């Protein structure tokens, strides 16, 4: 079975995605006035949730169980939030940084799925899962409405990055430019959606 060849860029994508999503999970716990144990749990579950589901679908051990850095990164992020006031983390700032993790993780998930022999279309879906499921798990546990239930261009941005990655790898284009370009494309869409409140049209057909 093929392995995803590790590179510094993919390693950075991995830690970046984990850290950003761990931050969003820890902040949810902070706003709910939870204990540090709960905050660390939220950081870990949100940080690794999407990648864990992806690895289970591929049929391989969860990535964070073999990487010595993932759990410590989540714990460090939880400590950072615990010792800083929530006003430091403005909602828009978190949204913009979350977009970076979302798109980088979507590219990483797609590249990993393709490396394990997954066809391009399912690989794109695994990329979307990698980028979004951690946040869904966080919201479900916290009892909050998931971002999936709002018409924001969130999953769409992950899909753009994942699709760009799959297309580039399918045509055997240079990997690093493909990864960077795919991430940038989804990131530009997500940031534009945040900046100008762009949304997808909701279903409105009468029954």
UniProtKB/TrEMBL annotation:
**Superkingdom of the organism of origin:** Bacteria
Gene Ontology CC terms, in alphabetical order? plasma membrane
| Primary location recorded for the protein, binned into one broad class | membrane
Name its cellular compartments.
Cell membrane
The transmembrane residues are 12-29, 41-63, 69-88, 124-141, 153-171, 177-198
Q: Where is the Glycine transporter domain?
A: 13-84, 97-163
Regarding the membrane, this protein is recorded as: Multi-pass membrane protein
What UniProt keywords apply to this chain's record, in alphabetical order?
A: Cell membrane, Membrane, Transmembrane, Transmembrane helix
By sequence similarity, the record places it as follows: Belongs to the UPF0126 family.
PANTHER family assigned: INNER MEMBRANE PROTEIN (PTHR30506), UPF0126 INNER MEMBRANE PROTEIN YADS-RELATED (PTHR30506:SF3)
Q: What is this protein called?
A: Glycine transporter domain-containing protein
Q: What is the protein's species of origin?
A: Paraurantiacibacter namhicola
